[in-house]
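Q: Sequence in, structure out?
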Amino acid sequence: MGPTRLRYTMLGFIIGVLIVWLKELPISSGVRFAAPFYGAGIGLLVDGIIQRIKQGKGKNE
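A: Exactly. Output:
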């Protein structure tokens, strides 16, 4: 796992943990407790999108 991939995964996980601590949010407890894993997945998706954009720019030049 590359450094950027791990970075975005950990950022997503940390944001998900913060969502778990915010009990005033109008979401169910199941979604709230799964938020760190959702955040990690979203971080991986964002990293994949960024890598594809960077690869696309390299091919055009």
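The first helix runs from residue 3 to 21.
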